[in-house]
């Protein structure tokens, strides 16, 4: 692990001969999973300048727009963790100072080296959660092991979503290929649909492939941890700041909740397609999950994780 600068952001980097992974120190965003052979990072880097969230203020930085997501948008990159809540705060929570998608993308993270990777940690004071993520490289696979600790003496329902967003040049309108096994879908609004991953297939997964470079990225996870895959697209349609009608992105967000919505709505929804819409975490207890990201050059988009692993 080395300290580095990534698009004018402080970051930590892991790499081997095949892949390079970069994580921002503020927000813990997985900003880069670079396939060295193709020279491609599929993860989204916003077209607007990125700043350290600790330096953000609405008075000094009106270019990041209005609303509860503006602080997160000032520093978001690639794969963002949504923990505690997934989506916007309620009107009252916004007035109290809360932001979209929870605190993990806003706080400073602590990092330490492992013999074959790194360990990152953050504490979420409002949600009363402590989070730890270990990242290891295994050839051109990236292994993530996560744990969430409830610091509260109360059982509580939580959202826990891996907000993976892909972007150009890997993402091309009408050309980038996607594949995932789902059995049910429910649209929330124009541009966002929640998909229930196939109960008959475990692990769950999604693959995305760029025909031009041949680069293919896949995320593979335990369906019991994250039964939902939310998909959204932005194709230069949002004209407000900071999007400004020039942004192309696609979210492939796997997690414990189908929709980005305030916690009250998440809890009241309870289930969709007979599947829970959040995770319960017991008082002073810990939840764990693990998943992989694999990046490789492939001749076609794989149909199964085994096919993707054959390129490793």
| Amount of helix | under 10%
Provide the succession of SSEs. EEEEHEHEEEEEEEEEEEEHEEEEH
Helix and strand composition category: mainly beta
Average pLDDT, rounded to a whole number, is 97
Regions with pLDDT < 50 over 5+ consecutive residues?
A: none
Query: What is the 3D form?
Result: globular
Give the terminus-to-terminus CA distance. Answer: 22 Å
| Strand adjacency order, main sheet | 6-7-8-9-21-15-14-11
Radius of gyration: 18 Å
Major beta sheet summary: 8 strands, antiparallel
Q: What's the total helix number? A: 4
Annotation, overall tally of beta strands: 21
- Strand residues, percent: 35-45%
Outline the structure in words.
By secondary structure, the protein is mainly beta. 7% of the residues lie in helices and 45% in strands. It contains 4 helices and 21 strands. The chain has helices at residues 70-73, 91-95, 263-269, 305-309, and strands spanning 2-6, 9-15, 19-24, 30-35, 79-84, 110-114, 117-124, 129-138, 141-150, 156-166, 177-179, 182-189, 192-197, 204-209, 215-221, 228-235, 248-255, 271-272, 275-276, 279-281, 286-297. Strands 6-7-8-9-21-15-14-11 form an 8-stranded antiparallel sheet. The longest helix has 7 residues, at 263-269. The protein is globular. The mean pLDDT is 97.
State the gist of this model.
The chain is mainly β and 312 residues long. Helix content is 7%, strand content 45%. It has 4 helices and 21 strands.
């Amino acid at each position: 692990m080395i300290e580095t600068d990534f698009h004018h952001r402080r970051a930590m980097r892991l790499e081997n001969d095949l892949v390079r992974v970069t994580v921002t120190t503020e927000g813990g965003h997985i900003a880069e999973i670079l396939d060295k052979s193709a020279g491609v990072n599929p993860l989204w880097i916003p077209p607007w300048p990125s700043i350290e969230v600790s330096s953000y203020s609405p008075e000094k930085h009106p270019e990041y727009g209005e609303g509860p997501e503006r602080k997160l948008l000032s520093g978001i990159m690639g794969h963002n963790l949504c923990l505690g809540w997934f989506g916007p705060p309620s009107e009252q929570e916004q007035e109290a100072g809360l932001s979209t998608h929870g605190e993990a993308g806003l706080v400073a993270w602590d990092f330490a080296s492992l013999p074959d990777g790194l360990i990152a940690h953050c504490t979420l004071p409002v949600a009363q959660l402590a989070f730890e993520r270990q990242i290891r490289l295994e050839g051109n696979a990236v292994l993530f092991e996560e744990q969430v600790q409830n610091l509260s003496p109360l059982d509580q329902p939580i959202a826990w979503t891996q907000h993976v967003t892909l972007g150009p040049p890997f993402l091309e309108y009408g050309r980038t290929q996607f594949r995932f096994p789902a059995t049910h879908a429910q649209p929330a609004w124009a541009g966002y649909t929640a998909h229930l991953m196939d109960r008959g297939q475990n692990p769950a997964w999604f693959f995305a492939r760029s025909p031009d470079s041949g680069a293919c990225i896949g995320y593979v996870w335990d369906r019991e941890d994250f039964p939902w895959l939310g998909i959204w697209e932005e194709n230069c349609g949002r004209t407000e700041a900071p999007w400004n009608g020039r942004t192309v992105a696609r979210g492939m967000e796997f997690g414990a909740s189908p929709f980005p919505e305030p916690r009250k709505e998440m809890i009241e929804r309870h289930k969709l397609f007979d599947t829970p819409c959040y995770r319960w975490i017991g008082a002073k207890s810990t939840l764990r999950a693990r998943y992989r990201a694999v990046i490789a050059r492939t001749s076609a988009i794989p149909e199964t994780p085994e096919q993707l692993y054959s390129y490793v």
